[in-house]
Amino acid sequence: MTKLIWVLMFSLLATIPQAEELKSSQGTLVMTKVADGFDTPWAIAFLPDDNVLITDRGGSLYILRQHQKHRIKGTPRVFGQGQGGLLDVMVPRDFIQSREIFLTFSKRQNRGSGTALAVAELSLDFKRLIRFRILFEAAPSSTSSRHFGSRVIEAADGSLVMTLGERGERDSAQDLSLHQGSIIRLNRDGSVPRDNPFVGDPTAQSQIWSYGHRNPQGLAQDLHGAIWAVEHGAKGGDEINLIRKGANYGWPVISYGRHYSGSKIGEGTAKPGLQQPAWYWNPSIAPSGMMIYSGKLWPQWRGHFFVGSLKFDYISRLSGRALSEKERLTSPQTGRIRDVAEAPDGSIWFASETEGAIYRLSPANE
Amino acid sequence: MTKLIWVLMFSLLATIPQAEELKSSQGTLVMTKVADGFDTPWAIAFLPDDNVLITDRGGSLYILRQHQKHRIKGTPRVFGQGQGGLLDVMVPRDFIQSREIFLTFSKRQNRGSGTALAVAELSLDFKRLIRFRILFEAAPSSTSSRHFGSRVIEAADGSLVMTLGERGERDSAQDLSLHQGSIIRLNRDGSVPRDNPFVGDPTAQSQIWSYGHRNPQGLAQDLHGAIWAVEHGAKGGDEINLIRKGANYGWPVISYGRHYSGSKIGEGTAKPGLQQPAWYWNPSIAPSGMMIYSGKLWPQWRGHFFVGSLKFDYISRLSGRALSEKERLTSPQTGRIRDVAEAPDGSIWFASETEGAIYRLSPANE
Fold first, then answer.
1. Cβ–Cβ contacts within 10 Å for residue B158, how many?
2. Is the pLDDT score of A365 beyond 90?
3. Mean predicted confidence (pLDDT) in B180-196
4. pLDDT grade, residue A4 (50/70/90)?
5. CB–CB contact B277 A272 (8 Å)
6. From the CA of B269, how many Å to the nearest CA of chain A?
7. What's the distance, CA B269 to chain centroid?
8. In terms of DSSP H, where are the helices of A90-144?
9. Which of B224, B273, B279 sits opposite A272 (nearest CB)?
10. Which residue in chain A is spatially nearest to B199 when comparing CA positions?
11. Residue A338 · residue A353 · CB < 8 Å
12. Closest chain B residue by Cα to residue A197
C-alpha cells in the first residue's frame, strides 16, 4: 500500500513540469522548464492555442504542442559555421488566416554567405513548412562566419523590419551600397516600401531603413509601435537604440566601446549627425533577444525592456524616459540567454543556451 | 531734345528696381531690392499671384502687391519688449480656398508673456485680417524678454509644427510640463493630434513634439517632408537638427557650445538618449530663418539648406548626407539676415535687418 502510493507519487512528479523560483522586484517568480534538449535555442515565437515555435541554431525548427516538442520538416538548409544557422522565427498577426511564419537564417551564397529572410506556411497538421520562399538575401556575400544578426518583426504598419550584422567587416556598416550592418524594411512580399529613406538613391540599397549597426540581435516594438534594437557593440559598447528612419547609428565611427584589442574606436563617443544610443552597457553583457512587456501579469513592468545577456547569464530589465537598467533577473537557469519573449498570457519566456532549455516565468500567485 | 531724353531716362531708372550682384558657386546672382523701409523684417511668405507677406517685428504685417508695400490691418497686439514682437507668417497650401494665414508672436499674458500662434483670414481686398483667433499660447507665462522662437510650418500631413524658445530659462527646455524650449505640433484647428508623443502623459504638455531646444528661429521641410530646425545655441553651439517625434535635443544638458560666461555647459557634448545635432557652428553665427531649396533655378542646390546669419551677415548654404556648410553667400546687402525664403518661381528671397529691406536673388541668365 505504502509502496503503491510512492509509485503513484513518483509517476506524478515525473510528469509535472519542474518549477523553480526566481526573485524579482515584483516578488518571487515561478520558473517552469517548458522544453529542453536543445543545442542552441535561438528564438521563441507564439502561435495561437498555446503552441510555441522554437528555433535551434543548428537548423531545426521545433513546435511545442501539449508539452511535447516536435521537429517541423521543410526548414531551409542553413550555413552553419560560426555564429550562423537558423536564427529568428516570427509569427505574423494574421497567422490564423495566412498560416505564414517568417524565418531568418544564414544562407550559403556563391561567394560565401548572407543573412536571409524567408516565409513559409505551416501545414495544418503543424508538421511541415510548405510554399517556402526566400524574400530577401543580404548582398554582397561575405566570407566571414560572424555577425549575421538577425531578428525580424512585423511593424505596426504591416511591413517587415529585420536586423543585419556587419559580418565583422566594420566599414560595411557605413556603406549604404551594402546591406551589412543595417536594419532593413520590406513589404510583406519582400518588395521595397516606397517610403523607405534611400529609395531612388543610386548609391544605396533601397531596403535599408537605418545603418551604422554592428550586430543587432534583438528587436522589439514598444507600446506606441516604435521600434527598438539592441546590438552587440565593441568592448564596453553594447547599445539599445530607438530605430529611426534613415538614421546612422555610428558604427564604427563612434562607439562607447573600445576594440577588443583595447584600441580606440573611430572618432570617439559622439559626432554630429550620428545617433546616440538610448542606453549602453559597460562592461558589455553580450545582449541577445529583447522584449518590451505589454502584458497583464506584471502591470508595473508594462513598457519595460527585457534583454537577455549571453555573457553574464541574466535578463536585464530597463525602463525610464532616459532608459536605464533597473534590475538583473538571474538564477542558476539563466545561463547564456538567447531570447526573451512575452507569451499571449503575459508570462515571460526565455531560452537558455547553457541549459539547452526554454523556461516560463509567471507570478507566484498566478 | 537731349534734355527730354535725359528726363525720360531718369524717370525710367527711378522706377526700375535696383539690381546688384552677388558671387556664388553657381555663378553671379542678380540681387534685386524688392522692398525697404522696414525696422526689423522678420519673416517672408508667398501668396499666389506674386503677392508677398512680410512681418516687421514691431507689430506690422505688410503685403507687397505690384512692387508696392501696404500695411495690413487687424494684426494682433504684440508684446514688443526685447526679442518679442510679431514674428513668423505662414501661408498654408489651401490659401486660395481658405484665405487663411498663420502668425506667431509674443503675447502679453497675465504674468508676463508667451509665444502664441494665431490664424486669420486675409480679406479679399488684401487689406485686413478677419476672423482672427488664437490657436495656441505657451504656458506658463515668462517674465523674460528673450528666446521666443518662433517659426511655424504646415507639415506634409497638414499639421502645424511650431518652434518655441526656452525664454532664457534653461531648465525649462528639459521640463515637459512647460512648453518653453520645445517644438510643438497641432492640428490645423489648434487641437492636439492623437499621435503626439506625450499624449496621455500627465507630466507633459501634450502639444510637445520634441524638446531640449534653446531658441529655434528657423524651421523647414526637406524634399522628403522631414522637418529640420535651426537654433541659437550657447557660444559655439548653434545647431541644425532633424526633428524627430518625442526626441530630446539636449539643451542644457549637452551642447557643443559654452555659456557666454565661458563656463562649461551641463555634461558635455553628448549623452546617451539625447540627440546629436546634424551640424553645429563654432563660432556661433546666430542663425535665423532657414529654407531648404526645392526650385528649378539652381538644380544643383535642390535639397540644400540656406540659413541666415544675424551675426556674420551672410547666408549659409549647407548640404550632404553628413550635413556641412559648403558656402557663405555674402554682399554689402546681407547684413543681419532675419529670414531666407524660396519664392514660387524658385528665386531666393532674404530679409536684411541692417538694410531694413527685402531682396530677391535670381540667376544672372534668368
1. 12
2. no
3. 98
4. low
5. yes
6. 8
7. 26
8. 95-98
9. B279
10. A224
11. yes
12. B224
Annotated catalytic residue: which of A147, A213, A232, A304? A147
**Backbone phi, then psi, for A115, in 5-degree steps?**
-75, 135
C-alpha cell at A150: 538577425
Cβ–Cβ under 8 Å, residues B149 and B229:
no
Q: How far is A269 from chain B (nearest CA, A)?
A: 8
Sheet holding A337-342, edge to edge: A19-24, A27-35, A357-363, A348-352, A337-342
Closest CA to A348 of A334, A335, A13: A334
The residue of chain A nearest to residue B269, with distances taken between CA atoms, is A270
Taking residues A312-330, what's their average pLDDT? 97
CATH superfamily of A22-363: TolB, C-terminal domain (2.120.10.30)
Question: Does the pLDDT value for residue A2 go beyond 90?
Answer: no
Are the C-beta atoms of residues B365 and B353 closer than 8 Å to each other?
no
The residue annotated as part of the active site, out of B67, B70, B147, B259, is: B147
Distance CA B262, CA B258 (A): 6
Concatenated DSSP letters of A142-161 = B---S-----EEE-TTS-EE
- Please state the pTM of the whole predicted model: 0.90
Torsion of CA A305, A309, A312, A316, to 10 degrees: 10
- Measured between beta carbons, the chain B residues lying within 8 angstroms of A276 are 270-276
What is the Cα–Cα distance from A43 to A89, expressed in whole angstroms? Answer: 6
At B104-125, the pLDDT tens digits run 999 999 889 999 999 999 999 9
Give B340→chain A minimum CA distance, Å.
23
Residues of A with CB under 8 A from a CB of B: 197, 224, 244, 256, 269-280, 322-323
Is B147 catalytic? The answer is yes
Q: Check: CB of residue B295 under 8 Å from CB of residue B302.
A: yes
ipTM of the prediction: 0.84
Residue B276: DSSP 8-state: P
Q: Give CA–CA dist A343/A300, Å, rounded.
A: 17
Q: Do B273 and A224 touch (CB under 8 A)?
A: no
What kind and span of H or E run contains A12?
helix A2-15
Which three cell numbers, joined as nine digits, stand for B243? 526633428
Domain boundaries, chain B: 22-363
A98: DSSP letter: H
Of B197, B244, B276, the CB nearest to A271: B276
Q: What is the reported pLDDT for B165?
A: 98
Residues 6+ apart with CB under 8 A from A183: A161, A162, A163, A164, A208, A209, A210, A211, A213, A216, A219, A229, A243
B347 CA: distance to closest CA in chain A (Å): 26
Instruction: Please give the residue of chain B at the shortest CA–CA distance from A278.
Output: B273
Contact residues of B toward A, CB < 8 A: 197, 224, 244, 256, 269-280, 322-323
Residue of B nearest to A239 (CA): B272
Q: Kindly determine whether residue A275 and residue B276, on different chains, have CB atoms separated by under 8 Å.
A: yes
Among A76, A109, A86, A90, which Cα is nearest to A46's?
A90
SS3 B258: strand
- Tell me how far apart the terminal alpha carbons of chain B are, to the nearest angstrom: 35
Calculate the average pLDDT of chain B: 95
Q: What would the DSSP string read from start to end of A321-334?
A: TTTEEEEEE--TT-
Give the model's confidence band at B169: pLDDT under 50 very low, under 70 low, under 90 confident, else very high: very high
Mutate to test the interface with A, among B210, B222, B267, B276 (most CBs of A within 10 A): B276
Contacts of A322 in chain B (CB under 8 A): 272-273
